[in-house]
Amino acid sequence: MSWLGDVDRRSPSLASHRATTAHLAAAFPFMASSELTGRGVLIGTDLGGSPFAYDPFHLYEQGLLTNPNMIVIGQIGRGKSAFVKSYLWRQAVFGRRAWVLDPKGEYGSLARAWGAAPIALRPGGDVRLNPLELAGRGDPDGARRQAELLATLCSACLGRPLFPAERAAADVALVDAVMGCRSQATLPAVVEALLDPSEQAASSLRMSKSQLAREGRDLALELRRLVLGDLRGMFDGPTTPSVRLDGPIAVLDLSALYGSDALGIVITCAAAWLQATLWNSTASAHTIVVVDEAWAVLADVAVARWLQASWKLARALGVANIAVLHRCSDLTAAGEAGSSQWALAGGLLSDSETRVLYGQAPGEVGAAAQAIGLSRTEAQVVSHLGRGTALWKVGNRSFLVRHRISDLERELVDTDVAMQAGLGGENL
Ligand SMILES: Nc1ncnc2c1ncn2[C@@H]1O[C@H](COP(=O)(O)OP(=O)(O)OP(=O)(O)O)[C@@H](O)[C@H]1O
Ligand SMILES: [Mg+2]
Question: pTM score, two decimals?
């Protein structure tokens, strides 16, 4: 324990004061923190002007984090996406690869800067991803995960939990679809199997074929939305062969669905396909998977539960997940304290040991303080943060970090073009 001398011996008007470094750290939480490890990509500067570097994989190796996942929370326009883009750009320089689910279609210039075109998913478009693609080689639990994903999609499409008979109907339809498809099960094959189940499927549940078809009928009609309805042509067949994820950055542009009530379903399908691809990947590089605008996923309990389960796989897959949200209350939007949604939000937070908090509206600070466990000083600080400055909670350490953007990166992160255009843009 080190003792500090009198704060100011020269000033006769000020009483002298002695304190331990532990007390000083409590009084000035961000100024008295030592650096993390100094390893990782440079994010910016801390309150004292020292460089702040971060790498979740290194911190995990050092035992300073027990999981590599991150949640980024902040009001509109505070710089959340700008931070994520420059972070991915800097990580790619060191050989990390990044996969982004991009609901606003704003990561395209980042992908192009690395020589990769963003993969644009839109109803009736050219690109299909198969969310039921089985993670063959690497994943011993692939079949169970495939069944869970199908149940999640059914429940999200119906907007309610499945009844036991419906869950069983989905399970046996998946088995029928796998047997009927020579390569991979697809959603159209599942819909077909739900509408017209096999004798074998019915007898495995001690039902007649017509009984089983009745139990699965609502599921089939709702899943048709992804096959023949407004969401057709994105997830209703084998993955388009030209889709490749071997570059340093791959961006799935979901902007055609931004604002749609189906965004959560679309993100889930895309994330499921990414996950299967990760299990099958032989690349040794660590991967960072970003879900920007993740509130769309958390609004639905079934989808949020699926996301949380996939968050837990981070260590097994060598992945660091990042979810970007507007408010802590996004995490609990559909649930009261004590509800399953509340518990899910808590689970997602405890599976994300790095929390990056940008400015919060005064009315949101209480929820943030409660969910993330902010001290009184931290809670006061987050309601006054300007654009580009965030409170970083890394494990049990806190840092106030000003994110610095290079001139080169500025073009990649700018989302103010429309605002500036409306005001006369560069001429102002
Ligand atoms: N650290 C920074 N330094 C300078 N400019 C910044 C910084 N961070 C963000 N900006 C600028 O602020 C604008 C808004 O940033 P950004 O799009 O990242 O906000 P956001 O928090 O993701 O907003 P939304 O919630 O709407 O997605 C961008 O044009 C970006 O260039
Ligand atoms: Mg953003």
Answer: 0.85
